[in-house]
From TrEMBL:
Keyword NADP on entry: no
One MF annotation (Gene Ontology) recorded for this entry: phenylalanine ammonia-lyase activity
CC annotations in GO: cytoplasm
Cross-link 5-imidazolinone (Ala-Gly), where in sequence: 143-145
Residues modified to 2,3-didehydroalanine (Ser): 144
EC number: 4.3.1.3
Annotated protein name in UniProt: Histidine ammonia-lyase
Catalyzed reaction equations: L-histidine = trans-urocanate + NH4(+)
Species of the source: Streptomyces uncialis
Family per similarity comment: Belongs to the PAL/histidase family.
Length: 512
């Protein structure tokens, strides 16, 4: 099994994916152990002093004005975990919880939080045991960190609440820890607070969305190329020199992908064969511009994610010179903005894909294809309602594109009077990524059928490879009406699992 070593200088997106999705083992580096011990010595020194220090010897949030004596400090740290574990609603996905915990561990290991090494080791042990705390959908405002989600994770560390074992069975956390030989943590000064105060949930979801969208944007280039073929469009608009004069890198990459997929096609360039047309419709001709803008949005979001992956988000923090200072680095605005930005790009990519699908099904615009790609139109409805399904998904994606980060509701008796809503932005982006996968699957279903209905013309080699692979995956081709839902589900799986990209690349080589 792959092992991820956590040091003091942050982590990578690849490591997050490895731990969250592939159950990679986690280990602390010697450097991290040293940094943890050094920062803890600073906190212990402050705890011994009479002056109040936020999070060490005071209450929290609007209650920070109360000084807490040594006898109550362990109770204070337990209480913040218990009281803040106030989430409600459905459980979030296992991979999200694992990303959340791993990213919090990353910050602990920075040596900026002041927790003892054994706290970090216990968190690593819980991850390695495959124990997944129950975290609920609602509870984070994305400021002061993802408080409720992280609190539910911390609750497991202290042996309270419920968690899911590696067998998928929900059990009391104390039982699961005991079954794996893990001692619950007895929290000391600042440690409860340090376990809760980060943007880890929204960041983990951003990292996973970026990985998924890398694949989906390449998939969209392939489905757009297949639609162009099925519509007898021209590939001349994909020429590199046309995209060089508007030098957006994402646009050039998408055009190059489409051109590679269409290499050798006999279906392109038939503008004058039926009804004369000088240009293809925007949904075909502007595919690289729209997908390319989304690619550039991904690049910006990746830059923000990389910065956040290198960050140590906590309040207060232990600085290299030994000072412990309050700060506002837990505010989720940087992450929340790009999560919302991506939701806009996803909605628009789905929108243009749906327009191509609708064009394929309309006999007045499809340049010779049968109505709705039906076998015997009138007796058969073909893919009529598949487009309805696609349109419903696109309509919901437009609603999901409304930014969460533009909202703010004051909390904690107006102490926390402006919040990011970054967790909400991340949750809706996860939904949007799933919808985009389905929209592209339906375009793939329609476009491959359209290409196959062009008798006497040979598709591109990459197109033939995609059609062969998708048919082999259980997605049916042209013919009389049949139960469509299983075909669409198989097409969705084919796109989501990366088999669409792999099939095209078996001919084109690596696509961008």
């Amino acid at each position: 099994m792959h092992t991820v070593v956590v040091g003091t200088s942050g982590t990578t997106a690849a490591d997050v994916i490895a731990v969250a999705r592939d159950n990679a083992r986690v280990e602390l580096s010697g450097e991290a152990e040293t940094a943890l011990a050094a920062a803890r010595a600073v906190v212990d020194d402050l705890a011994a002093r009479p002056e109040p220090v936020y999070g060490v010897s005071t209450g929290f949030g609007a209650l920070a004005t109360r000084h807490i004596g040594p006898a109550l400090r362990a109770q204070l740290q337990r209480n913040i975990v218990r009281s803040h574990a106030a989430g409600i609603g459905p459980r979030v996905e296992r991979e999200v919880v694992r990303a959340l915990m791993f990213l919090r561990l990353k910050t602990l290991c920075s040596g900026r939080t002041g927790v003892r090494p054994e706290v970090a080791r216990t968190m690593a042990d819980v991850l390695n045991a495959g124990i997944t705390p129950v975290v609920h959908e609602h509870g984070s405002l994305g400021c002061s960190g993802d408080l409720a989600p992280l609190s539910h994770c911390a609750l497991t560390l202290i042996g309270e609440g419920d968690a899911e074992g590696p067998d998928g069975v929900l059990r009391p956390a104390a039982e699961l820890l005991a079954a794996h030989g893990i001692e619950p943590v007895e929290l000391r000064e600042k440690e409860g607070l340090a376990l809760l105060n980060g943007t880890d949930g929204m960041l983990g979801m951003l990292v996973m969305a970026l990985a998924d969208l890398d694949r989906l944007y390449t998939s969209a280039d392939i489905t757009a190329a297949l639609s162009l073929e099925a519509l007898l469009g021209t590939d001349k608009v994909l020429a590199p020199e046309l995209h060089a004069i508007r030098p957006h890198p994402g646009q050039a990459a998408s055009a190059a992908n489409m051109l590679a997929v269409l290499q050798g096609s006999e279906l392109t360039g038939h503008h004058q064969d039926d009804a004369p047309r000088v240009q293809d419709a925007y949904s075909v001709r502007c595919a690289p511009q729209v997908a390319g803008a989304g690619r550039d949005t991904l690049a910006h979001a990746r830059l923000v994610a990389e910065r956040e992956l290198a960050a140590a988000v906590d309040n207060p923090v232990v600085l290299p010179d030994g000072r412990v200072e309050s700060n506002g680095n837990f505010h989720g605005a940087p992450v929340g903005y790009v999560l919302d930005f991506l939701a806009i790009a996803v909605a628009d990519l789905a929108s243009i894909a749906e327009r191509r699908t609708d064009r394929l099904l309309d006999k007045n615009r499809s340049h010779g294809l049968p109505p709705f790609l039906a076998d015997d139109a009138g007796v058969d409805s073909g893919l009529m309602i598949a487009q309805y399904t696609q349109a419903a998904l696109v309509s919901e994606l437009k609603r999901l594109a409304v930014p969460a980060s533009a909202d703010s509701i004051p909390s904690s008796a107006m102490q926390e009077d402006h919040v990011s809503m970054g967790w909400s932005a991340a949750r809706k982006l996860r939904t949007a990524v799933g919808h985009l996968t389905q929209v592209l699957a339906i375009e793939l279903y329609a476009a491959t059928r359209g290409v196959e209905l062009r008798d006497g013309l040979v598709p591109a080699g990459a197109s033939r490879a995609v059609i062969s692979a998708v048919r082999g995956a259980g997605v049916g081709g042209p013919g009389p009406d049949r139960y469509l839902a299983p075909d669409l589900a198989a097409a969705e799986s084919f796109v989501r699992d990366g088999r669409l990209v792999a099939a095209a690349e078996s001919v084109t080589g690596p696509l961008s």
